[in-house]
Design a protein that fits this description.
- The complex is a heterodimer.
- Chain A has 25 helices and 26 strands.
- In chain A, helix 4 runs parallel beside helix 18 and helix 15 packs across helix 17.
- In chain A, 61% of the residues are buried.
- In chain A, the strands form six sheets. Chain A has an eight-stranded mixed sheet, with helices on one face. A six-stranded mixed β-barrel of chain A has the order 21-25-22-24-23-26.
- Chain B is of the alpha+beta class.
- Helix content of chain B is 19%, strand content 23%.
- In chain B, the strands form four sheets. A three-stranded mixed sheet of chain B has the order 8-1-9.
- In chain B, strand 6 and strand 7 form a beta hairpin.
- Chain B starts with a strand and ends in an 8-residue tail after the last strand.
- At the A-B interface, strand 3, helix 6, helix 7 and helix 24 of A face helix 1, strand 2, strand 3, helix 4 and helix 5 of B.
């Protein structure tokens, strides 16, 4: 566009204040410019600083996803073979009749447990979210089997529930400015937005004089702007380094014994483990150096620096916990924060990886009322349990869904799955072992997918239902765990084609199935009732119309939110919500599980597919699959503006590339026994030798030989989970060759 | 008056929100027509690595060499704010004149679409926004607030008159209207 025609009459353009509903760690107010019923531009928040919540590149490309020519606009039925991706347009009536018929057939032939509902984070809104809408409907229909566990955060969730009995382990982000030392352990908020503006607050903290240390196998983009020191570490060994830091503190008397005595239980047992009293192995920095690749002297210095700089924020996250024994990393980080007395104090951190604060937290969002799932009737109570086995009596671990479909009851799973419905998710792409997943989806008798696009998962559908994007809906959204504010989605445009929201689809099907009381309210009545009846929003939002109009309600804090401040100030009055009322460095509940891979104190445990596994002879590189910067997982994959700013490439150190004859930009194969993918190599000194990095979320696209041309990292990952429930997606050994 | 940019290289993560926002605001397709580019520099060997980014819009030079290079005088510099603009109707297109403006520019600011005969387009400091008292969209899009824009004198007064950054060479010939905060390579870890 040249200058002459770049001006625009604002009079013809409506500005809609809204947010996206992506499964993104940020939630950013957007101003959508709508002209002639079409979004023509996206602007961000226009609040004055410092309140402004600034959107990242993803939402800047929002309209490219909404209007992408590949958007699914009509219901479809499969005409080719399963997975081939050949579909033919049908009417909504035919689609819903077919689905109703198949649901009845499967229920009648096999029973309700053979119906599997697979949800996902593809849309995080209160009303129009697919998993909840379908859960309510399928419960009315007699029940369904579903998955347990979040593929991203389960390790961290288990760890914080063990140690603190609470997921609200974060500080409001501006409190980072009170820290003198910030240790970012496996955390790259430049890519994985852990709260809008979090990276900006970190930059301000650095500029105000905080020292920042990044521990990570990669010199990531957060480290580029923040790190005073980068400590590269081998994947899966973080806990060993933390344990040896504890060793240094104990040996040199640097730990805060008074804090430990008053607020924790079980430090003596942890100390016995660290000093080798328990197992005869002293967890010295030299011991850790051999495991982690981090020089002993570096570990010693960091231990001293962390123990003597007050306040200091040890910021672990969820990435390193997405691995075998990943829970131990978060548990050990929390233990270090207690040893240094940084829990509950400004500028400190309780660690735990979730960074949640209690105002605006998505866990406290309202939702379509659930109905007890008859298939789960009589299952053991799982409330507050740390015993994953109890949670898997009637449910399937998220990372084992494909195995469960293939093996059923004979394989020890709770059901023989015959029909599956997937909404708001792309599990084939995003769960471990994609090739096994393809086999599983092919084996289903019937598969329904509600989607925006024909994703790799959707290619296997028998019936495809086109859903609206957040721009075509009204809803309430929340800023993940990172408030303190509330947001909503305001409809900017009419639904494209014949798209419907997940909730509206469930309503229409309910009618076909004869459930008159599935939905009793209008959209507006639902949304209003959510705001008025939710204990949080009813307290904070006094003017519903203003909230909807502005799209955001910010909560002004008199002082930063500090996790466990009340407990530290007055433990008697405000005990921790653990059985002991204290921080549990030793957990009797975990001891009672009697699982050697799930120790009651945090421990470093060598795992499958780490550098000690003999498999390393065949597959000598460790694979990392972190969150991409230009997608929300596999969402926004189609947006060309986002693709061109960062081509999909594998990070590989020249030390690993050159002996294999690989030059920068070469196409390479990355493979193991689970699969093989093709991707371009990016030679960089920013990744440690022995490690390769492929950002998750690129779409699986197998060729005739079964080589994934899309570069979907999960072709290589394992569909395994850790005893605390962490999906072990960052625990995978691979080999690389020039294509 | 002369407008200009400020770029704090120490804050840039290379996220490219500026580049995406630019494409959205100016409705530019994915492809080679990039009014805002983010340049990457990596130096050193593991684990002593230095990385920096540099934003490359049109720096709205004080003495733009693209203007005399253009055979049809399609490029001009506005008196009131120094924004360098192109008249797409007067431009001959990339084939006929062989991109003389691009060859004359030390920063490769003039941009062309992929098609034969594509007319030149480039960053115009979001002239429409500037006329509406708004900063360029790249400035407002930067999540780390690494960018600023406005009258060059004011930017110099606020941020200093630093004309150096990693990967950037100040052209004494064209005099780009930008002040910077330099990211210095670390000598040792």
């Amino acid at each position: 566009m040249s200058f002459e025609n770049s001006s625009m009459t604002i009079g013809e353009t409506r500005i809609i204040r809204t947010t996206s509903a992506f499964d993104c760690g940020g939630r950013c107010p957007l101003r959508l410019h709508v002209k002639d019923g079409r979004i023509i531009r996206v602007e961000g928040d226009d609040a004055q600083e410092p309140e402004q919540l600034r959107a990242c590149l993803r939402c800047r490309a929002y309209r490219q996803e909404i209007y992408h020519p590949d958007r699914l606009k009509y219901p479809m039925k499969r005409v080719g073979s399963k997975g081939e991706g050949k579909f033919e347009r049908i009417s909504w009536d035919e689609a819903l009749e077919t689905i109703a018929g198949e649901l009845k057939r499967v229920k009648g032939t096999y029973g309700n447990h053979s119906i599997l509902l697979i949800g996902g984070g593809g849309y995080l809104g209160a009303l129009h979210e697919g998993e909840r809408a379908l859960a309510r409907l399928l419960s009315m229909f007699g029940g369904y089997t579903t998955n347990y566990g979040n593929v991203s955060s389960e390790g961290a969730v288990w760890a914080v529930m063990t140690q603190y009995g609470s997921v609200m382990v974060g500080h409001s982000r501006e409190d980072l400015l009170n820290s003198k030392l910030i240790i970012m352990w496996g955390w790259d908020p430049a890519r994985m937005i852990s709260g809008t503006n979090t990276l900006y607050h970190l930059i301000r903290a650095k500029e105000a004089g905080a020292r920042i240390i990044c521990i990570d196998p990669r010199y990531h983009d957060s480290a580029v702007v923040l790190a005073d020191q980068w400590i590269p570490i081998r994947p899966g060994t973080d806990t060993a380094m933390m344990v040896s830091m504890a060793y240094v503190m104990i040996k040199e008397g640097l730990h805060d014994q008074k804090f430990l005595d008053k607020y924790t239980v079980g430090f003596d047992k942890f100390r016995d483990y660290v000093l080798g009293v328990e197992d005869g192995v002293e967890k010295t920095p030299a011991w850790a150096e051999a495991i982690t690749g981090v020089p002993a002297l570096t570990i010693e210095r960091l231990a001293r620096e962390y123990a003597t700089t007050k306040p200091a924020a040890l910021m672990d996250c969820q990435g390193p916990a997405r691995s075998a024994m990943g829970e131990q990393y978060n548990r050990c980080a929390m233990t270090l924060t207690a040893m240094t007395g940084n829990v509950g104090r400004r500028g400190g951190s309780a660690a735990g990886g979730l960074m949640g604060i209690p105002i605006g937290h998505m866990f406290r969002s309202s939702a379509i009322p659930g109905i007890r799932n008859p298939v789960e009737a009589g299952a053991p109570s799982v409330r507050g349990t740390l015993d994953l086995r109890l949670r898997l009596v009637r449910r399937v671990h998220t990372n084992r869904i494909f195995d469960a479909i293939l093996k059923g009851k004979a394989g020890g799973y709770p059901a023989d799955i015959k029909l599956a419905w997937c909404a708001c998710g792309n599990p084939l792409n995003q769960f471990g072992n994609t090739n096994k997943g393809a086999q599983a989806l092919r084996s289903l008798e019937f598969f329904i997918v509600s989607e925006l696009f024909v994703t790799p998962t959707a290619r296997f559908a028998d019936i495809l239902l086109p859903v609206t994007s957040a721009a075509e809906r009204n809803d309430l959204t929340r800023p993940w765990p990172s408030g303190p504010y509330f947001t909503c989605v305001n409809k900017a445009i009419e639904p494209l084609g014949e798209c419907k929201s997940d909730f509206d689809i469930a309503c229409d099907l309910a009618e076909k199935l004869g459930f008159k009381d599935y939905n009793t309210l209008s959209e507006e009545e639902w949304l209003k009732s959510f705001v008025l009846n939710n204990p949080e929003t009813s307290q904070h939002i006094k003017d519903y119309d203003k909230f909807r109009r502005e799209g955001v309600h910010r909560v002004k804090l008199a002082e930063p939110i500090v996790a466990f401040k009340e407990q530290i100030e007055d433990l008697e009055k405000n005990p921790f919500t653990t059985p002991s009322g204290k921080i549990e460095i030793f957990s009797q509940r975990v001891a009672d599980l009697k699982d050697p891979l799930c120790p009651p104190i945090p421990k470093y445990v060598s795992t499958w597919e780490d550098r000690n596994d003999p498999l390393i002879e065949k597959y000598p590189l460790q694979l990392l699959s972190p969150h991409p910067k230009n997608r929300v997982h596999s969402h926004l994959y189609k947006a060309d503006w986002l693709r061109e700013v960062e081509p999909h490439r594998a990070w590989i150190n020249p030390v690993d590339a050159e002996p294999r004859g690989i030059k920068d930009g070469d196409e390479i194969y990355v493979f193991n026994d689970r699969g093989k993918l093709a991707i371009r190599a990016w030679l960089t000194e920013r990744i440690m030798p022995g490690v390769i990095c492929i950002f998750e979320g690129a779409w699986y696209n197998p060729d005739k030989e079964g080589i994934d041309r899309g570069g979907c990292a999960n072709v290589l990952t394992n569909d395994a989970y850790s005893p605390g429930g962490a999906s072990a997606l960052n625990t995978a050994l691979v080999q690389v060759s020039k294509a | 008056m002369q407008i200009g940019f400020y770029f704090d290289q120490t804050r840039c993560t290379g996220c490219s929100a500026c580049a995406v926002a630019c494409k959205d605001w100016h409705d530019l397709p994915a492809g080679p027509e990039n009014w805002m580019r983010v340049q990457y520099t990596e130096k050193g060997k593991f684990p002593n690595v230095f990385v920096s980014y540099l934003v490359v819009p049109c720096y709205q030079c004080l003495d733009p060499t693209c203007i005399p290079a253009c055979p049809t005088r399609a490029i001009s510099k506005r008196d009131e704010d120094g924004i360098v603009v192109v008249d797409g109707r007067a431009c001959l297109g990339n084939k006929e004149c062989d991109v003389k403006c691009l060859k004359a520019c030390p920063y490769n600011a003039p941009q062309f679409g992929p098609e034969l005969g594509a007319k030149m387009s480039k960053c115009n400091f979001c002239l429409d926004r500037w006329s509406d008292n708004k900063l360029p969209v790249c400035v407002e899009a930067c999540p780390t607030r690494a960018l600023d824009g406005g009258p060059l004198d004011e930017l110099k007064a606020k941020y200093g008159d630093i004309r150096a950054a990693e990967g950037f060479a100040y052209s004494n010939r064209t005099k780009p209207a930008i002040v910077l905060k330099l990211k210095r390579p670390k000598t040792t870890r």
